[in-house]
Amino acid sequence: MVAAVAGGRLTLTNTIMHLRIRSIILLGLLVRTALAATPAEAQETREAEWTAQQQQKAAVAKPYEPSATERWLTTLRREFVEVPAGFYPYFASVYSGGGFTLGAGYRAYLNDRTHADIKGLYSIKSYKFLELSTDSWGLADGRVDLHGRTGWRDATQVAFYGLGIDSSDFRSNFRMKQWYIGAEAQARPVWPVVFGATLTYDDYSLSEGKGTDPSIEEIFTPATAPGLGASPNYIHASASAGIDTRPAAGYARRGGLYQITYHSFNDQDDVFSFDRVDGEIVQHIPILRENWVISLHGFTQTTLDDEDQVPFFLMPSLGSGSTLRGYPSWRFRDRHSLLLSGEFRWIPNRLGLDMAIFYDTGKVVPRWNDLSLSNLKDDVGIGVRFHGPMATPLRIELAHGSEGMRLVFAGSAAF
Fold first, then answer.
1. pLDDT (tens digit, 9 = 90+) per residue, 179-208?
2. What is the pTM of this model?
3. Apex CA 41: angle with CA 36 and CA 43, to 5°?
4. Fewer beta carbons within 10 Å, N or C terminal of the chain?
């Protein structure tokens, strides 16, 4: 009897133990299943929330609308930079130093590669300009450009300060009228080689200067201003050769130009004939996909024969919106010149706006051997440029030189 009771208790104990073990195993399976299911459920929950957020954004999203500035820049580029047809506003300089200028033109296409233009300009200083031209682009499978033009300009108060880099800042004026007719050709037989040639007839007429400054003949003589009192007529021929890797001459953020040009000025009276050679180097160094650019420029002009008589108004010069920008137009003149410029450019808006800080330095001298890096004039400044893919129709700069500050408005690239 006792044994039977003991056996029953043992059986009950074993049964309870088995139930506990099974409960523990079942609980473990439930926990493992819950742990395995939680990440999947959480992932599904996150995806559902993200989908709901995207649907909500899509419901309230609007098409992109450019700002007023972006619309204005786009219009400026389309109307003033891209090739126009019919009537168009024309921004350029009648002659350096003419002041603020307004103009207009009319363009008619003769075919898909050739157009004819008539354009005129008038400046705040009563400078006047009128030109009829025709241009043919990309002939001979894109290798040749041809240009023909005839025109007239009247620059009423061109500055003359005397000769040399140490000339006085006292200004005199002269009036120059010019009528011209000529043709020009550029050829690119193989990239990046470029050749150019021009032939022009120039009829100059010089007279008493206008404006508030004294006229040139009141201050200078033919000894101090060679050619004073003369009005020569020239057959002007030039030929150039170079390497040009820039996308366009009117606006570039990469590539460079290495070019030499020979000029022959043949005076029809054989008194003021002379020859000149120009050398130019331009190099644009892009940084970070052209977001920043270091641009360098060197330019020199030299009269070949020291015995030739060069009229004062055709001598190499420095001082203008494209040479020494901190000095007035025609500030320094002589038989030879040297110019060095550097710019750091950046792009605040890719629609057509660049900015730059720059430095210019240079000199003019009576003899080639005097061209050195001593006794240079220089300036520094900052500027903004409105441009298109191939041209810079408006450049505004503030420059400071040893004679003060100057505000520059120009209708072309600095270099």
1. 999 999 999 999 999 999 999 999 999 999
2. 0.78
3. 105
4. N
